[in-house]
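As the next step, I needed to go through one protein, both as residues and as discrete backbone shape codes, included below for the reader:
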Amino acid sequence: MLQHTVPQILRPQGIRLTPKKGDKYLKIACLSFGLGEVLGDMVCGGMQECFCFRNVSACGLNGENCPSQLASCEGRMPNAKFAEYNKLFCLKTGCDLEFAPLFECKK
């Protein structure tokens, strides 16, 4: 039986667009800027969340180090999250309109 599975990179917890441990980043109010890995399973991509939908697209390298492109758009229960995240090589940017600290800087 053929079963559809969502690749890890497209799952919310698998998104490589936001800063992670080891990244250098700056966050001011709802804007974030970071430097992370250059290549990997996501080389460039983006994610948008608005009220009742989430859209994710990614280009990168798959498990066999071959180029791959994935995209997903899904409806969801309405919430008050409005966000945009992007990654191009090592540069990560984001805008998140949930409650956040006004200033944060980490190495």
About this structure: The mean pLDDT is 77. Residues 37 and 106 are 16 Å apart (CA to CA). The two ends are 47 Å apart (CA to CA). The chain has no helices and eight strands.
